[in-house]
Amino acid sequence: MTDNRQPSGWRKRALLFLTSQCITLFGSTLVQMALVWYAAMETASGGWVAAFSVCSYLPQFLVSFLGGVWADRYNRKALIIGADVLIACATLAMIPALPHIPSGPALLGGLTSSVYEDGVVYSVKRDVDQSLCFAAIVPDYKLLTEAARAALPKQVAHKDAVYNLSRAALVPAAFCEGRHDLLGIATEDKLHQPYRMPLMPGSREVFALAKQCGAKAVYVSGAGSTVMAVAERAEAERFYAGLRAGLETLEGLDGCEAFTLLELDADNTGATVE
After folding, report:
1. Per-domain residue ranges for the chain?
2. What percent of the chain has pLDDT over 90?
3. Which residues of 172-186 are buried (b: 16+ CB within 10 A; e: fewer)?
4. How far apart are the C-alpha atoms of 70 and 57, rounded to whole Å?
5. CA distances (Å), 8 to each of 2, 4, 14, 49, 63, in order?
6. Domain 116-265 falls in which CATH fold?
7. Which of 109, 181, 219, 255 lies in disulfide reach of 270, CB 3.0 to 4.6 Å?
8. 75 close to 58: Cβ distance less than 8 angstroms
């Protein structure tokens, strides 16, 4: 005779299993969408969005060929738990890497202007004048992008918007056509630096020091906390020496114990695959 009775408690176990899988799938989908959204907002690059999308779904595609065989041969509970643990570990491993995802200029090199419109990235690249040299002055504290963005006003005055737009038109000539006399005026700003610099201890002193050392332009790099200074390559040795000596005198400021000076050249090549 065949015993057709169902094991006791099977409904409870089935409900727990289905509930746990719903939570797991919801969490995994949420993480995948968040990563793709982050790539779109931070890089405005269709390439990075596509890469994140492929990496999100490729493992499922590959494992599907062997999943049934593994489920028949191995402990299914262990397989489910192991898969969830791997997803969690991969997600945690991505967190430190997210801020280092390169944006348009890092990928294309040079002076790159990009616009993201209706899912399409429009970019124009121009080579930066090689007679310029750059100094990245990095403080020993971090300014979170979220905090830097929160410091910006929801609305800006029309005159401030015009101020920035008119100067932005001078940037290509200043950086790419040898018009070094325009560097200072082209990089002046009223839309973000006045609001973010109070969050960057020592930044005003660094601005003053860089100009004293011969910088043609000084500005906040991105959302901060790094300050960029631009000088002519012919004056590079004196420029960097003055910065190194001056930064030593600024060490120990309230909120900033030390600065790191990076001596940089313009990269007109962009990212390469080796």
Report:
1. 10-100, 116-265
2. 26
3. bebbbeeebebbbeb
4. 19
5. 17, 12, 12, 48, 33
6. Alpha-Beta Plaits (3.30.70)
7. 109
8. no
Question: In the prediction, which pLDDT does 232 show?
Answer: 93
> Three-state SS for 116?
strand
What tokens appear for 121 in the block? 């990235």
Bridge partners (DSSP) of residue 232 are 132
What is the token pair recorded at 133? 């040299």
Structure tokens given for 111: 């002076």
| CB 244 within 8 Å of CB 122 | no
What gap in Å lies between CA 120 and CA 39, rounded to an integer?
A: 14
Q: Which amino acid is at 69?
A: V
pLDDT at 99 over 60: no
Tokens 């930044």 sit on residue: 203
Tens-place pLDDT, residues 52-95:
677 766 776 677 777 777 777 778 777 777 777 777 776 666 66
pLDDT in tens, 254-271: 777 788 899 988 888 876
